[in-house]
Structure formats: structure tokens, C-alpha cells
Amino acid sequence: MSVHMTNSGHQQTHPQRAPKAEFYAYFALIFLGALSYALVAWVASLIAKRKLPAKNPISRAWADAGAITPSIFRA
Length: 75
Known about the structure:
By secondary structure, the chain is mainly α. It has one domain (17-74). It is built from two helices and two strands; from the N terminus they run E-E-H-H. It has a two-stranded antiparallel ribbon with strand order 1-2. The longest helix is centred in the middle third of the chain and has 30 residues, at 20-49. It is rod-shaped.
């Protein structure tokens, strides 16, 4: 972590990051929501195309939660 000195000699540090527990709580909630949509999409694709989709619903929901959660903490 780098430290910057100001003109008055006080140290400034980078902004604090969100606690890991909060990140994992949001990740879990988003994962559960994404899992329900992924299951519906997986079943619909299975019925429409009559073959298994490339990604299973859990990996698809995990990827969605992994993309959405960090964007919440960046805002």
C-alpha cells in the first residue's frame, strides 16, 4: 500500500475497502437470486433445444454474482 505525503506533512492512505464479510453477504444474496434465473433459463433452453446447455446453472449464477458484486462496491 503506498502512502502519500501532503504539504502539511500528514500521511494520506488509500480509501478503506469494504469488509470481506459484507462482500460475501452481498455475493451470497446475488448468487441466490441469479441461481433462480439461471435455473429457469437452463430448463427453458433444455426444453427448446432438447440438449444440455454448455454452462450449468450453478456456474452461470456464480459467474453472474462474480461480475455484479464487485460493481456494487465500486459505486
